[in-house]
Design brief:
Keywords: Isomerase, Rotamase, Signal. The chain is α+β, with helices and mostly antiparallel strands. The protein has 2 domains: 278 residues, Triger factor/SurA peptide-binding fold (Orthogonal Bundle), CATH 1.10.4030; 104 residues, Chitinase A, domain 3, CATH 3.10.50. It contains 16 helices and 9 strands. Helix 6 packs parallel to helix 10 and helix 9 packs across helix 11. The longest helix is centred in the C-terminal third of the chain and has 31 residues. It is elongated, with a radius of gyration of 27 Å.
Length: 450
């Protein structure tokens, strides 16, 4: 199974979205200096993750396997990207299902990342009986704004650095965008002087693009815009336990409540425009999808050999005495006899296995070579589908393994990936159209540096 990374507006309008998405989430992310993970695959369930630990090679090899999985979820070589200057397709790790569904391509990678809570504790909103958290946060923010407003009007950061038609981009806008970008990218600060100038120039270019896009987008009416803004701001507020944490998070990226509302409004307006103008009309034919598949079969669609297996584990401590190990092996032999006699493998695993996978009937999911300890791997790959092994010893104890599926090495069938290819190609088209529009708007715009 393969997936393509959820793409967004094109390179000329990617970073530009950094300040037009829900600003509270951005503030939260910047405040903890957490980079979003762009991987397109879902995280494994805790039970399954723990279960695999009992069959993997140990801490170091397990880390290697994890890195291997992560590598599969990153964008491959930029063959298609070179053609479009857009996002690259991503090959999904064969052993994990993807949680990514088709979403609006109008949203930048930083936007998708920004919508996810960075802290587990921040997921739950404060529950105050009879109180409106958003209203309280707004009132609290007013005091901050009143104190800072008079200072900000004369603050050096508020000097204009660029005019885009009738709109002004200030030094504060530039610094704020740069701060968010560097926090998300985990770039070490402060930057060297040359790197600082280069980063500022890139940020200004992106802010120019988003302003031009917004000026065009605002011509389209957005139904219930005020309500959408209020709802999205409330969702962002709900990621913080207290109003003060919310305000501090905004302050960490030099934002006020009004800033966040303004940026959220801009985000909604731009995404509505791209959806109506481009996304709704985008299409990719079967012929285009087939051509992409054939052109990129070896690069994106080759599957490694893999198996899916379940096991029953009788665990043994590494410091166990010979007598203790013998008792464990005897128990495993007895369990094997029960399975061979016809008892349901999953039922025996649930009742007897000491691995966390017991709750899943012993299911470890799919895995490739190099991901399990040698003895376990050798036995699993030697079995046919439906076949049960003898008792297999490893450093974790004694295993009884049943292979439930096998995947031969080779190319993924076109029919299995056709829809995802078509979706990816549609997003590419949208990206290119937005890029072209921004370039056209630049040609007629009055852009002046101060």
């Amino acid at each position: 199974m393969f997936s393509f990374k959820k793409s967004s507006v094109p390179a000329a309008a990617a970073l530009l979205m950094a300040l037009t998405l829900p600003a509270a989430a951005l503030a939260e992310e910047a405040a903890v200096s957490a980079a979003a993970e762009p991987a397109a695959k879902a995280a494994p369930k805790p039970a399954r993750k723990a279960a695999k630990k009992h069959a993997k090679k140990g801490a170091k090899p397990a880390a290697k396997a994890k890195a291997k999985t992560a590598a599969k979820a990153t964008a491959p070589a930029a063959k298609p990207a070179a053609k479009t200057a857009a996002q690259e397709p991503v090959k999904e790790a064969a052993k994990e299902p993807t949680k990514e569904s088709a979403k609006e391509p109008a949203k930048a990678p930083v936007q998708e990342a920004a919508k996810e809570p960075v802290k587990e504790a921040a997921k739950a909103p404060a529950k105050d009986q009879g109180k409106d958290p958003l209203k309280e946060a707004t009132e609290l923010a007013k005091e901050q704004q009143q104190r800072e407003q008079s200072q900000q009007s004369q603050h050096p950061a508020n000097i204009a650095v660029l005019h885009v038609n009738n709109s002004v981009i200030t030094k504060l806008d530039m610094d704020r965008a740069l701060k968010v970008m560097l926090a998300q990218s985990q770039v070490k600060q402060p930057l060297a002087p040359d790197a600082q100038k280069e980063a500022e120039a890139a940020v200004l270019d992106q802010l120019t693009s988003v302003e031009l896009l917004y000026q065009e987008a605002v011509k389209l009416e957005v139904p219930d815009l005020d309500k959408q803004v209020t709802d999205k701001v409330a969702q962002n507020r709900a990621k913080f336990k207290t109003d003060q944490e919310f305000i501090e998070a905004l302050r960490s990226v030099d934002m006020t409540m009004q800033d966040m509302q303004d940026f959220t409004r801009k985000d909604i307006v731009i995404n509505n425009f791209i959806e109506q103008k481009f996304t709704a009309k985008a299409a990719a034919t079967d012929a285009e999808a087939k051509k992409f598949y054939e052109d990129n079969k070896n690069q994106y669609f080759m599957q490694p050999e893999g198996v899916r297996a379940s096991h029953i584990l009788v665990s043994v401590d590494e410091k166990a005495t010979p007598e203790e190990r013998k008792r464990a092996k005897d128990k495993a032999e007895a369990l094997l006899k029960r399975v061979k006699a016809g008892e349901d493998f999953a039922a025996v695993a649930k009742a007897e296995s000491s691995c966390p996978s017991a709750s899943q009937g012993g299911d470890l999911g799919a895995f490739g070579r190099g991901e399990m300890v040698p003895a376990f791997e050798k036995a699993a790959f030697a079995l046919k589908v439906g076949e049960v092994s003898g008792v297999v010893e490893s450093e974790f104890g004694y295993h009884i393994i049943k292979v439930t599926d096998k995947q031969e090495a080779g190319a993924e069938k076109f029919e299995n990936v056709k829809d995802k290819i078509a979706d990816f190609l549609k997003r590419q088209k949208v990206q290119q159209e937005v890029t072209d529009l921004v370039e056209q708007l630049r040609k007629t715009a009055k852009i002046q540096k101060d």
